[in-house]
Amino acid sequence: MAKKIDFEKCTPSLSEERKLGVELVAGVDEVGRGCIAGPVYAAAVLIPPEWLGLTDRALFKKHPELSEIQDSKLITEKNRDRISDWLTTQSGVTFAIGTASVQEIEDINILHASLLAMDRALQGLKTNWDHVLVDGNRILPAWQGRATALVKGDRRSLAIAASSIIAKVARDRHMRELDEIHPGYGFSVHKGYGTPLHLNRLSEMGPSREHRLLFAPVAAVMNRSPGI
C-alpha cells in the first residue's frame, strides 16, 4: 500500500528555489560547527531542473522520499542514513562534500572554516550552477550575486535540507572512524559535540589530536592536563 502523504506538513519545499527563476539551483549547508572535536563538513546539492518544473504536490507524489526531508537535526540517525543513501543514488541529483580540518578551524576560526567547507563543497560539484541557497546569514564574496542566505534555510529550502542530511551522514560516518583511531572518547556516540559523556572522557583522558584546542571546554581541560 502506497504511503499517504500529508502535503500540509511537507516542509521544506522547493518554493524558495522556484522564486529564483533560474534552472540550476544548489543548496549548501554545514554540520559540526558547534562541536569541540573533529572537522566541519559541508555538502552541496544541485536540484534536478525537472524537479523545479513540478509543483511540490506532484514532486512528492512522484518521489515520496522527498516528503521525508527535513532539517537533519529533526530526523533520526536511521532515517538520515536512509534518506542520504536515496538522495546520493538518484539519477540527476548532483552532490559534493567539502570539509575543513581541525587545524583550519583553529587557524581561521570556525565561521570562516565553515564557509570554506561550503565553498569546497560547491567547487566539488564540478557542474555550473546559476544560484546557491546557503543556510544561515553569511555568504562568501566569491558567491556575491549568485547566492542567497536563508536563516533557518534547512527548514525552508529542500535543497538546503537535502545538503544538511548528506553532510550530517558523511560527518557522522567520519566520526565513527575516528572512534576507532582514538578509542575511549565516545566519538561514535556524541560525534564530537560537548555532551556530558564527552566532557567527562575529555577530563579523564586529556585532548586528542582531533579536539579543537581553542574551544573553551577543551582549553579548560588543557589547563589541568599534560596535553596530547
Describe the 3D structure.
It contains 10 helices and 5 strands. With 228 residues, the protein is an alpha/beta fold. A 5-stranded mixed sheet has the order 3-2-1-4-5. A hairpin with an 8-residue loop joins strand 1 (25-31) and strand 2 (40-46).
Give the overall shape. globular
What do we call the CATH topology?
Nucleotidyltransferase, domain 5
Percent helix, as a range, is: 40-55%
Low-confidence stretches: none
Fraction in beta strands: 5-15%
Measure the end-to-end span.
56 Å
Q: pLDDT average, as an integer?
A: 92
Chart the SSEs and their pairings.
Layout: H1 15-19, E1 25-31, E2 40-46, H2 49-52, H3 56-62, H4 77-87, E3 94-100, H5 102-108, H6 110-124, E4 131-135, E5 147-150, H7 158-181, H8 187-190, H9 196-205, H10 216-222
Helix pairs in contact: 4-7, 5-6
Features of the shown structure:
228 residues, alpha/beta
Short description:
This protein is α/β, with parallel strands linked by helices and 228 residues long.
